Amino acid sequence: MGDEFLVAPVVTPNTTQRDVYLPKGHWQDVWTGEIATGNTLLENHPTPLDLLPIFKRIQ
Question: Which domains does the chain have, with CATH numbers?
Fold first, then answer.
């Protein structure tokens, strides 16, 4: 999705969480509004079936 969005789809059946690596920069979870500093691994990030993990790069 370009440089502005990061999508972390779930590719394993019956998965409720997954690790998500955020590249350098500042990222906002589009569903919760939480902001994270990049170059980090979000371990066990929740991945409910109704909310695809999507992060937007912010300045």
Answer: 5-58 (2.60.40.1180)
Strand partners, 21: 41
What is the C-alpha separation between 56 and 8, in angstroms, rounded?
12
57 phi/psi in degrees, rounded to 5: -70, 135
In this structure, the chain runs to a length of 59
DSSP bridge partners of 18: 45
21 three-class SS: strand
pLDDT at site 33: 97
Successive 10-residue mean pLDDT values, the chain, 59 residues: 88 91 97 96 92 93
Q: Report the alpha-carbon distance of residue 23 to residue 16 in Å, rounded.
A: 22
